[in-house]
Amino acid sequence: MKTTLRALTEIRLRRSEEVFQGREPDGGCDHLWIPDNRVNRERLVLAVELGNRLHGPATHWIEKRQA
Fold first, then answer.
1. Cα within 13 Å of Cα(60), Cβ side
2. In the prediction, which pLDDT does 27 show?
3. Residues 41-61, buried b or exposed e (16+ Cβ, 10 A)?
4. What values do phi and psi take at 18, rounded to 5?
5. What are the φ and ψ backbone dihedral angles of 40, each rounded to 5 degrees?
6. pLDDT means per 10 residues in the chain (67 residues)?
7. What is the pLDDT of residue 6?
8. Could you give the CA distance from residue 20 to residue 64 in angstroms, rounded to a whole number?
9. pLDDT, tens only, 19-38
10. What is the pTM of this model?
11. Angle 62-65-17 (CA atoms, 0-180°, nearest 5)?
12. Which of 2, 40, 43, 64 has its CA 20 to 30 A from that of 10?
């Protein structure tokens, strides 16, 4: 039996410092890492697209790390 090992990864939504100057209205969520799976990635992609439409190009992105 062959097994394939995959590294677990996590993702989070990031935004540029220019988006919110000073205290962030929602208390900030940039520290929340979630498992990188299809559903979570799709949700973050939508959040990135919305954030970039509202605040300008390249103001929001998805950050990835190995868990």
1. 19
2. 52
3. beebeeebeebeeeeeeebbe
4. -70, -20
5. -65, -40
6. 80 89 58 94 97 95 96
7. 74
8. 22
9. 876 555 555 556 799 999 99
10. 0.76
11. 45
12. 2
Look at residues 42, 28, 34 and name the one whose alpha carbon lies nearest to residue 63.
34
Would you state the structure tokens that stand for residue 67, as one six-digit string?
């868990």
Quick one: three-class SS letters along the chain? CCCCCCCCEEEEEEECCCCCCCCCCCCCCCCCCEECCHHHHHHHHHHHHHHHHHHCCCCEEEEEEEC
**CA atoms of 52 and 48, how far apart (whole Å):** 6
AA letter at 61: W
